[in-house]
Design brief:
With about 170 residues, the chain is an all-alpha fold. The protein has one domain. About 75% of the residues lie in helices and about 0% in strands. About 25% of the residues are buried.
């Protein structure tokens, strides 16, 4: 199964939105620094909302990062397998190593998603709010995190399925 085009477009869109949000967060911190150190009038709300936006940007952009190979990885073993096998049989050894690495990622994402889901339900049940100057319901943050985790899982599953095809896109 090749990587779905609709998922690629969705991740591209969310990645761009995440990038824009990171830029907005940077501007918010710059404005806050100017307000604090130049005008001696710090804002009481900007840091809290910049952190909320940063959480949103992070979980919107993570699936995109997997899609474009932007994640951190150690390719030493894969490169060594390629060298030993001389890229034989459509780089089967390297494919297997990539699949193993992505399955490890899925295990980590599964644990994270489970923990976030439990926290989301707990925060909804208790009606918890963030401990900030301008609090918001914690449920909103956990919902964003849960959605981002699900999108990352879907993306990594599609990458693993793509590795079973002739495509070399996700081998490296």
């Amino acid at each position: 199964m090749p990587y779905p085009k609709w998922l690629r477009k969705l991740n591209d869109t969310f990645g761009r939105i995440g990038g824009i949000l990171c830029f907005i967060v940077a501007i918010m911190f710059l404005v806050n620094a100017v307000m604090r150190y130049v005008f001696r009038q710090p804002t009481s709300w900007m840091t809290d909302y910049a952190c909320y936006l940063h959480c949103l940007a992070l979980f919107l952009g993570c699936a995109y990062t997997f899609q474009v190979h932007g994640h951190v990885g150690v390719d030493l073993v894969r490169k060594q397998v390629d060298k030993i096998t001389h890229r034989a049989h459509n780089r089967l050894g390297t494919r297997i190593m990539a699949i193993i690495g992505h399955i490890q990622t899925l295990i980590f994402l599964g644990i994270t998603t489970y923990a976030v889901y439990n926290q989301m339900i707990k925060s909804k049940t208790l009606g918890s709010v963030t401990e900030a100057t301008y609090p918001i319901p914690q449920f909103i943050l956990y919902l964003i995190m849960f959605g981002g985790c699900l999108l990352m899982i879907l993306t990594v599953v599609c990458i693993v399925l793509t590795l079973f095809t002739e495509s070399d896109e996700y081998i490296e």
